[in-house]
Amino acid sequence: MNWKNLFTSSSNMTPEEARQFMAARLATDYQLLDVRRPTEYEQGHIPGCRLIPVKELSGRLAELDPKLPVLVYCHSGVRSKAASQLLLGADFQEVYNISGGIVAWQGQKAAGPEEQGLEFFVDRDFSSVFVMAYAMEEGLRQLYLALVDRVVEARDRKVLERLARFEEGHKAQLRARFAPEGLADAALETEAGAVEGGFDQARMMAHFGPQIADVKDIFYLGMMLETQALDLYSRLGRLAGDEQSRELFEFLAEEEGKHLGYLADELDKRLKE
C-alpha cells in the first residue's frame, strides 16, 4: 500500500468525458468499476461495468489490473471518490472518478443482477456457447422482422429491415471467425427461443408488444436489448475460462455497442422531427 498516494487526489471526469473516453477505446483497454451495493446495481448500471462494492474493494483488488485505467462511479460521486483514493494507494496508475455518479449519467443503463443471462452460457463447452450466441442473433433478427408490420412509413420499415440485416451479418461473421471445426449446419438451425441479452423471445413480446405504438417505441426496445446484450457479453468476457470464449464475447460486446449507437442516432432523428 502506497500511503503517500492516499493523499493524492484522483482525476475527475464528467459523465460526458467518461463516455467519450470509453468510446475512443476498446472495452479491454480500460476498466469501468461500480462501487455501489448489489441492490443498486440491479436497479440500473452502466453497461459493461464490474461490480465491487466499496466496502469489499480492499479485499478484491486482485480482480482489477493496476496497469489499465479505471473509471469509478457510484450513486452521486462520494463512494467512488473514496474508492479512487484506495486504488491510488494500491498503486493503480490511472484512476478517474466519474463526478455526479450514475445520477448524472445520461446514457443507456442495463438492469438486473450480475448473474442475469449467464445461465445460457456458463458451464458449457465452446461449441454450445457458439450455438447459443448464434441463436440469440437469429432471435433478434426475427424480432426486428416481426416488428416491420408495426410501422407505416417506408423509411421506418427500411430501418427495421436494415437492423435485421445487421443481425444476419453478425451471424455470418460469427460463422467465419468462431464456428467450431466440424460443426454441422443443422446445429445452427435450431429455433431461436431467446434474443440478445438473455431474454425469452415469446415472453418479451407478450410484455412489450402491446406497448409498441410507433417506430420510436421499437427503437427504445431495440436500445434496451442491445444495452442488455452489451452488458451480458462484457460480463461473460470477464468470466470466460478459455481464450476462444473470451474472444467471442469481447467481439459480441463491441458489436452490440456499435448497434446501440446506430439505434440512438436513428431515434435522435425521429425525436428532432
Task: Itemize the secondary structure elements and their pairings.
Elements: E1 11-13, H1 15-23, E2 31-34, H2 38-43, E3 50-51, E4 70-73, H3 78-89, E5 95-98, H4 126-147, H5 154-178, E6 194-195, E7 199-200, H6 201-208, H7 215-239, H8 243-271
Parallel strand pairs: 1-5, 2-3, 2-4, 4-5
Antiparallel strand pairs: 6-7
Structure characterization notes:
This protein is of the alpha/beta class and 273 residues long. 50% of the residues lie in helices and 8% in strands. It is built from eight helices and seven strands. The longest helix is centred in the C-terminal third of the chain and has 29 residues. The termini are far apart. The N terminus is likely disordered.
Helix content: 40-55%
CATH fold name of the largest domain, please?
Ferritin
Instruction: Determine the N-to-C terminus distance.
Output: 55 Å
Task: Give me the count of strands.
Answer: 7
User: CATH class of the largest domain, please?
Assistant: Mainly Alpha
Count of helical regions: 8
Task: Determine the CATH superfamily of the largest domain.
Answer: Ferritin, core subunit, four-helix bundle
- Which consecutive residue ranges, at least 5 long each, have pLDDT under 50? 1-8
CATH architecture of the largest domain: Up-down Bundle
Number of domains: 2
Structural class by secondary-structure content: alpha/beta
What radius of gyration results from the CA coordinates?
20 Å
Q: Give the helices and strands as they follow along the chain.
A: EHEHEEHEHHEEHHH
Strand percentage: 5-15%
